[in-house]
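**User:** My hope is that you can spare some time for a protein that puzzles me. As I understand it, each token names a local backbone shape. I would be glad if you read both lines and explained how they fit together. The protein I mean follows directly.
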Amino acid sequence: MLSLESYPDRLQYGDGHFTTLAVRGGAPQNWPAHRSRLEEACARLAMSPPDWQSLEDAVMKAAAQRGQGGVKVLVARAAGGRGYRPAEGPSQVWVSHFAEPAHYPLWRSQGISLALLPVTLGTSPMLAGLKHCSRLEQVLAAEALARVGSDEGVLLDDDGFVVSAVSANLFWFKGAVLHTPNLARSGVSGTQRALVMAAQPAQVVQAPLAALDEADEIFLCNALMGVVPVHTFGTRRLAAPRLTLQLRDTLG
């Protein structure tokens, strides 16, 4: 489809960042953590921060309108500039709301299957941890996931270390010890990941795929899905997710 309409020029370079909040009973969940994420991204990407009070008001209004589901906040650098060189000025901000993905309740109650994907994530310490708008790796991973036929997929970095799932952070139990990948070189440091680690200390590790092959329990999390247990990794059926469900109950 050809369109002659204008588009946000900075987004063609991925020059922005975003966060996605769950909405329950018309209220955004964990807003302070999402605001902190946006503040960190603005600072690390040298973007002008938005007016935080105006943004909070817009988030609250969108959440009240949605009632149940999610709110997305997208921040892009000031419009204009020449080529890659940015212009000075206030950042552009969009706030939208949407329904919860229909499959998430089923995932939470029944668990999911997980498979290794052939897409690897490049390492970039400068951008690691941020939920920036350059998401082509995740787009390719989602396309590969559709061909694999699993519910979600594991992504490794270029050196073969576990990073995350396509749309979620990843944890695993070995015995009673909780582990999660080190995201200092790639991946997104999610707000739900932080909640999990506040509820139960985790060993942050640079782990090869073998760590998942040997795990007793595996689960995924993000702000919308919450904590989702994995019942099958590859061809291996995992044990009942007793510790995962206990942790999920603790988080509420």
Remarks:
- The helical segments are 31-44, 52-66, 104-110, 136-148, 191-199, 210-213, 242-251.
- The CA atoms of residues 115 and 148 lie 8 Å apart.
